[in-house]
Design a protein that fits this description.
Length: about 210
């Protein structure tokens, strides 16, 4: 019986890891991350990579523990959360597409990248939050809860490593390459934002 429970917990953890990895999509977030750290020093780029992963981990853990309670208390639906995240990402994508600089200064912008949009809503977005809440509700045993916790930590370790090693790309491309990456990232981010808004509207009107 213990073996069955252990195998079930391992399978549950693997499923959670794969699902969260696909939804958080660190490879997809990489070009957007690179476009936002172009003016940072190499050491700061690495620090921002791990800060972004840490912010995402913090958000996911908080919602894993208190997500349903928070949303119910604030009377906020998942669709509203998704729409808000989409609008925020759309604004940031427009800045990337137009090359608009942060009026408060590049240094401040680099520091905030790990928080918004990288940590949330790009990584720890509505999809990841809802998925985490669902997995928590299905973790019926202590072993399954531990497997889920390990899966969440493992995913964010992969995210941190992916973003950290991606910073080496910036040393290989010139200024024109950086501009191209920023434009492509802006387009991808805009597409993700529009998709989030559309799904939010569909959810509101049950379409």
């Amino acid at each position: 019986m213990k073996d069955v429970v252990a195998i079930s917990a391992v399978t549950f953890g693997i499923q959670a890891f794969i699902t969260l990895f696909v939804i958080l999509d660190p490879p997809g977030a990489t070009p957007i991350f690179l476009s936002l750290i172009t003016n940072a020093s190499p050491r700061k780029r690495i620090r921002l990579a791990w800060q972004g992963a840490a912010v995402s981990l913090t958000v996911i853990v908080v919602f894993a523990l208190f997500g349903k309670v928070i949303l119910d208390y604030l009377h906020v639906s998942v669709d509203a959360l998704q729409g808000a995240g989409g609008l925020l990402m759309l604004l940031i994508s427009l800045e990337l597409l137009t090359g608009k600089e942060d009026p408060s200064g590049t240094e401040n912008k680099n520091v905030n990248v790990a928080l918004v949009p990288l940590g949330t809503p790009l990584l720890a977005g509505p999809g990841a939050i809802v998925t985490t809440i669902v997995y928590v509700q299905h973790a019926h045993t202590t072993n399954m809860k531990l497997a889920l916790a390990l899966a969440i930590i493992a995913v964010h370790l992969v995210i941190g490593l992916t973003l950290m090693f991606s910073t080496k790309v910036l040393s290989l491309i010139k200024e024109s390459g950086v501009t191209l990456v920023a434009r492509i990232a802006g387009l991808l981010l805009a597409a993700i934002a529009v998709e989030m808004i559309v799904q939010s509207i569909k959810g509101f009107f049950n379409l």
